[in-house]
Amino acid sequence: MLQQWPSTSSTLWTLSQGGSCPSLMEHKWLNLSVLRSYTLGLKLENEQSKVFGRQIKRTCLCASQRPRQDSSVKKKAFPQNVDLPPILPKKKKKPYPVPLKKILRESRMNKKLAQMGIEKPLEPPKNGLLVPGLIPAAYDVLDAWKVLIKGVAQLLHVIPVYGCSKCPEVHVAETGHKIQDCLGSANAKRNSSHSWVRGSINDVLLPVESYHLYDPFGRRVKHETRFDYDRIPAVVELCIQAGVEIPEYPSRRRTKPIRMIGKKVFDRGEYVEEPRPWCSADLSALVDFDTHGACERFPPPLLSEVPRIAQETMDAYQTVRSGVQRLMKKYTVKACGYCSEVHVGPWGHNAKLCGEFKHQWRDGKHGWQDATLDEVFPPNYVWHARDPKGPPLTSALKSYYGKAPAVVELCMQAGAQIPEIYKPMMRLDIIIPESDEARLVA
Questions:
Q1: Which residues neighbour 115 within 8 Å (Cβ) at sequence distance 6 or greater?
Q2: How far, in Å, CA of 388 to CA of 400, rounded?
């Protein structure tokens, strides 16, 4: 007897031994290998049940129309469109990258261990030792950082970049856009229009510097001694603390870990005299790490080499971002919750240089918290211009435009391939209407 139960995903046929289908009864044992070859996917199950005290044995044949998926292959899907990055208010502290409940829970645990006199468990690099597995990654980041500076400096000779003289807005196109969103000084007199001037490499790669420390676990930088320490790019300082050896910027490599109880370090190892800050008139060995004067150091490239340089610069940008993010998962980087100051090390410095919201209440001290990737290596989002040589962008069609990091936009206009991760924010699948058609769009 053939019974059928309707279902959305599968259909079940049950064949009992007392049925009236002799053709099916002849095939008591079915070949499973043949069943697996079907595209629908079949499944046999032997079930035993009791009906009115009698034990009945039956064979269940399940057929499913769902396509089979290989669980070993995981495809990374990106959303179609994502929101533009929000603009954080200046009259408010930045949100904590780590949940506040987690910070308080760890603080209570450390306080309890300190009250019991138990040493705080530390692992590299929190105890001052290097992580051997991250040393090659640090060298890769530093090499890609050099390629990135050189590539952006060469592309600026070919692709025009404009910056507003009143606010930090940057635009990569033949002319500046006409979107009225300037928040600079005297913007009311200009109806929030930007005042465009020719941009430089610091408009594309925002300079984020940090104090170089010979011993990050040693003496803190005080306000009176801040001029005794060199300021270098935060990416370079992070690579140095991760294991990169630069003779001009030495760093202490500990062989014994530090020991802490609570927030107090009671064993820093043997005392080592810190070398005086490196100062020399010969900057040839350090010029590749900084963006200062990069456009003058590198000549304009040939037009035939522009696409190749753009692709190398794009790949270097991706390498720096992924490498810095990997290093920051282990090595501590602090950022001020009010301003853009960044410090690479376990604790922030004590220089009173913060001038942002409520700095009078803090006597100019920074409000240190864990840094994010965008604070150490800012993307500097700019409006995406689909036709750089076409009409400028207008405020009426602002909701149809997308954004991209300045380096990505610069390399894309020079002929590089757009990475998949930036396509949703650039809104490439949205058709931009004409200015007179925008009001008719629902």
A1: none
A2: 16
Query: Cβ contacts of residue 374 below 8 Å, gap of 6+?
Result: none
As a whole number of angstroms, the distance between CA 301 and CA 84 comes to: 33
Across 381-425, the runs of DSSP E, i.e. the strands, are 381-383, 403-405
Q: What is the pTM of this model?
A: 0.79
CB atoms closer than 10 angstroms to residue 77:
7
Give me the amino acid identity at 182. Answer: C
pLDDT (tens, 9 = 90+) of the chain, 442 residues, equals 444 444 444 433 433 444 444 444 344 343 434 334 443 344 444 444 444 445 555 554 454 455 555 545 455 567 777 888 888 888 889 999 988 899 999 989 988 988 888 888 888 998 889 999 999 999 999 999 999 999 999 999 999 999 999 999 999 999 999 999 998 888 889 899 999 999 999 999 999 999 999 989 888 899 999 988 889 999 999 999 999 999 888 899 988 888 888 888 877 776 677 776 545 444 565 788 888 888 999 999 999 999 999 999 999 999 999 999 999 999 999 999 999 999 999 989 999 999 898 888 989 999 999 999 999 999 999 999 999 998 999 998 988 899 999 999 999 999 999 999 999 999 888 888 876 666 666 5
CA atoms 128, 132, 133, 134: torsion sign = positive
